[in-house]
Amino acid sequence: MKVPRILKSWETFLVFLLVGVVLAFGAVNPSFLNLDNLLYSTSDFAHIMLAALPLTLVIITAGIDISISAVMGLSAVVLGVTWQGGANIFVAMGIALLVGIAAGAINGLLVANTDVNPLVITLGTLFLYSGIATGIAGSLGASGYEGISGLPRSFTRLAHGSVGPVPYPFIIILVLVGVYSVLLHMTRFGRSLYLIGVNPDAARFSGIPVKRVIVIAYMLSGLGSALAGAMLTAYFTSARSDLGSEALLPTITAVVLGGTDILGGSGTIVGTFLASMVLGYLKQGLLAVGVTNDVSQVVIGSLLIIVVAAKLLAGEMNRKRLNRRALQARDSVKGGGVPS
Predict the structure, then answer these.
(1) Kind and range of the H or E element at 163?
(2) Could you tell me if 237 and 75 are in contact, meaning their C-beta atoms sit under 8 angstroms apart?
(3) DSSP string of 122-141?
(4) Which residues contact 288 (CB under 8 A, 6 or more apart)?
(5) Which of 7, 11, 60, 111 is the most exposed place for a label (fewest CB within 10 A)?
(6) Residue-level pLDDT at 145
(7) What is the pTM for the complete model shown?
(8) What is the rounded distance in angstroms from the CA atom of residue 99 to the CA atom of residue 5?
(9) Best CA proximity match to 211, nearest among 200, 220, 222
């Protein structure tokens, strides 16, 4: 009997992995299986999903954006400073999101118009944005643990409010999963991302505005990071420059574990979403059984290495298999002779 294609997909494997992680920790601590607790705990790692979803678009183009954690902190500080200056809290949030888009645009313009590796470029902007955020916070005496506090309840409810048992952040994430999925799989822009990741020269010869597509992808990544920074600000009820400082590793791991090729050309939004859930519940479960945050970071880092190595190995094995088939087909043609 032929196995349905959907059952052989990476996303299906992630669904089983997610269920396995939840059940495994539920066996140790039965309260972990409470549906309300599972839904509520998504707020603890919502910022990872908010940043990982658009980062998927960047990595599909064979790029990378490691400045996302700095953009989170920068947007958080801009939000707090703007509100402290007298602006409405949601106007301040809008300005913070625009700052994130601008930061992403700078990354995209540098990547698209130079031959410098995106890793090097975004490493530089990581320090740049982090330095700006720290400088702004320090000049206002808000560089400590407290940061800029006293934010309105109408804003902090974004992270702590819910519709029934479903938290607002998770609702926002589900909406974004739908929006990004449509953008990636049902538009010309999405198809362009894949082609650029496979072969940017072929994409250029096909009439695709490669530079513009790359810049937009990085702008979306900047927007996602800024939104994550705003969500962290609401979650901790204070704006600090160090918000998101530990988000880089789990965000990239979520994208790669979700099936996106680190070398570009393949990936899905649903895969990234499911992988983010797996990593989020894995960390929550480890903390629930007494594992420290430092050790959980080691687990996530190890998982990233294993996934990347496994994908590279699988790609090499697939390449050799295709080469063997090509050689067998050639030998078969030679053995049969050439028709007269």
Answers:
(1) strand 162-163
(2) no
(3) HHHHHHHHHHHHHHHHHHTT
(4) 25, 28, 29, 32
(5) 7
(6) 61
(7) 0.88
(8) 42
(9) 200
What's the pLDDT score for residue 336? 58
CA 263 to centroid of chain Cα atoms: 16
The helix (run of H) or strand (run of E) holding residue 194 is helix 188-198
Q: What share of the chain is helix, strand, coil (3-state, %, to 5)?
A: 75, 0, 20
Least confident of 21-35, 221-235, 304-318: 304-318
The DSSP-derived string for 316-334 is: HHHHHHHHHHHHHHHHHHH
**272 close to 260: Cβ distance less than 8 angstroms:** yes
- Which range, of 17-21, 48-52, 117-121, averages the lowest pLDDT? 17-21
Say how many CA atoms lie within 13 Å of 180 toward its Cβ. Answer: 29
Which tokens is 33 given? 């299986």
| pLDDT given at position 144 | 57
CA–CA separation, 47 vs 92, rounded Å?
Answer: 19
Backbone angles phi and psi of 172, in degrees to 5: -60, -40
Domain ranges of the chain: 5-293
Give, for 162, the enclosing helix (H) or strand (E).
Answer: strand 162-163
pLDDT tens figures, 204-250: 999 999 999 999 999 999 999 999 999 999 999 999 988 888 899 89
Rounded CA-CA distance 155/88 in Å is 10
Buried b (16+ CB within 10 A) or exposed e, 150-160: ebeeebbebbe
> What's the confidence (pLDDT) of residue 77?
94
What does the block give as tokens for 46? 């919502």
Give 87-108 pLDDT, tens digit per residue: 999 999 999 999 999 999 999 9
Each residue's pLDDT tens digit, 103-132: 999 999 999 999 999 999 999 999 999 999
Token duo for residue 251? 């965000």
- CATH class of the domain defined by 5-293: mainly alpha
Q: Which amino acid is at 191?
A: R
